[in-house]
Amino acid sequence: MPVYKNNKAKSKKYYVKHKNITKRGFETYQEAKMWESKLILENSQVNCNKYFYDVATLYFDDLKPNVTYATYGKAIQTYNAYIKPNLANKRLSSITALDCKKFKDFIDALPLHTSSKNYIIGVYKRIFTFAVKYLSLSNNPCINLDNFKRTSEEIIRKHSKELNVWSVDEFNKFIECVKIPKYKTLFYVLFYTGIRLGEAQALQWKDYYNGLIDVYKSYTVKTDKGIYEIKTTKTLSSIRKVSLPSKLIDVLDDYKASISSTPGFSNDWYIFGNINPLPRTNIERVKSKAIKESGVKRIKIHDFRHSHASNLIASGVNIVAVSKRLGHSDINMTLKTYTHLMKKSEDELLMSLDKIFSKSSQDDF
Question: Is 188 exposed, middle or buried (0-12, 13-18, 19+ CB in 10 A)?
């Protein structure tokens, strides 16, 4: 509560603390509260008179140091393309709920995927939320804006879409064409552990021990200058110890033995890149070259993760174990991503039921 009573002073008068303003000497709580309400109203009137562009600028200044470069870049690009042209020169106080609805209708008419439309609305709403929280905006005009619902065509397309993954044979053809040891080892780790690329880039030799890797941090690009940052993983579930198959242990041990005599080597070195982690651009270039030479179908870096999970599920590994290995916060996330692979399990279930029922006589029913 911003209204306080000074019990230490002889007069025991009330005082108000609101942000960086302190006002003392009130005889009663009601007087202090009235002054506080007036101050908030005055601040609200001043802030609500700001142009939307000014509020958005403050929001993005606050956002930038707290998210990755990619996240910030996507948000500011979305604002400049879709929100700024419509609202930049409007005063915050003049924007009504109807204006917000009209903006949503404008976005709805654009030839964009539903997820893209919802992202635009999300950025739009977060700017107003910022104004409520920090600029004393008393009424949020877009509070009732709901997300767009996916079209039936999008739902069907999503459920029918197959993941772009490699079989073990396809991976073996690919890896034969990767000649540089550190990249070869990286692709082995991605395919046989399912960890994310950023998690692999952040791995240090001290994170590899006793036949497992300790995943608790991730690499992210901080600026457009190529400066990187190593941060803790986004969620607690992403912090995990991933066990390695014996073949992968041999690959890592052989690679470590080959570089351990390098001057300055230590367990603080990054497994993939030595003093600094390998940048994604270099990894993508090596991957593309090996795909072209091997003749296997083209996949994205993240598809190594999908390939790992898909091969495990197709081999009959418990979906809960797969979910934990991937670091998913919710098993439903795993099920939604790999639900098409469950058909095999369903077929096996029906075969088991047929066997059970064939052993029962009809009199049992």
Answer: buried
Torsion angle, alpha carbons of 264, 268, 269, 271, to 10: 140
Handedness of CA 29, 34, 37, 39 (dihedral sign): negative
What is the DSSP secondary structure assignment for residue 91, as one 8-state letter? Answer: B
Both 323 and 277 in a single domain? yes
- Residue 54 has a pLDDT of 87
Instruction: Say if residues 213 and 207 touch (Cβ distance below 8 Å).
Output: yes
**pLDDT tens-digit readout, 130-147:** 888 887 777 899 988 999
The count of domains in the chain is: 3
| Cα angle for residues 209, 214, 216 (degrees, 5° grid) | 155
Helix axes 331-338, 302-314, angle to 10 degrees: 90
352 assigned to some structural domain: no
Residue among 230, 235, 211 at smallest CA distance from 219: 230
Question: What is the C-alpha to C-alpha distance for residues 330 and 350, in angstroms, rounded to an integer?
Answer: 27
Return the exposure string of 299-320: e unless at least 16 CB atoms fall within 10 Å of the residue's CB, then b: bebebbbbbbbbbbbeeeeebe
- pTM tops 0.70: no
